[in-house]
Predict the structure.
Amino acid sequence: MPPPMKNVTPGRSGTDWTLTYGLIAVVVIGVIALYSSSAVVPPGYRGVSITLGSVSPDMRPEGFSLKKPFIEDIRFMEIRQQTQSGKATCFSSDMQTVDIAFNIMYRVPENKVVTLFKDYSGDPYYSLIEPRVQETLKQVTAERRAEDLVRNREAVKTEVLRKLKINIGELLFVEDLVVANIDLSDELEKAIEMKVVREQEALAKKFELEKAQKEGEITLVTAKAESEAMQLRGNAIKASPEVVQLEIIKKWDGRSPQVVSLGAGAAPGATILLPATK
């Protein structure tokens, strides 16, 4: 009697599995190669291409860009205006400690992206701007007294910004510098406040003195004018007595006044004007 038949499930051979795995590997490698062969530079940024450690002199604009898969990398650098804050401890010309807090606005020129990436490590602010801001602030404050720094903050800002632009040149555009705060010691701040109060009081007293002088001058001019006017009227009357008579006639109300002589003992020509009769 022949042996019973066994159920044999048909399956794939080793060659079939090898082809399947190989196909999957090719697809995965293709996807990775496709992904690594392109890059998208964000808005406000520019790309720097690096191939096997060599930096390309050509900048990549924003948007979609092709690259060599696996061997080329694209780094991004922002060209929009940026703001950084910082502090500097300086000394004034009268050897006072001055702490200055500042905000600086800057941006990277588009044509300097590759140069900055190649020649300056890291963020351009920390490698280029901040050291020069610190140095320039110390130079400017060393030329002024602490009190003048507080009173002329805008002049300090203008001078620092001017020198900073010269020191940095065209590598970066320094748009503006804001001196947020100038901090002195408590004792010096109190001394400056007291000095300001005394100066204000002195100005108030000076104003009152000038006001009194002006009022005195006005009074003197008015009195002199009245005196000269009276003198002119007196001279006019002496020169033309008929003027008095003319004024009397103009003001006469039609009634006859009564004039009585005071007699021989009185001064010559002395008379009394009695009320007029109706």
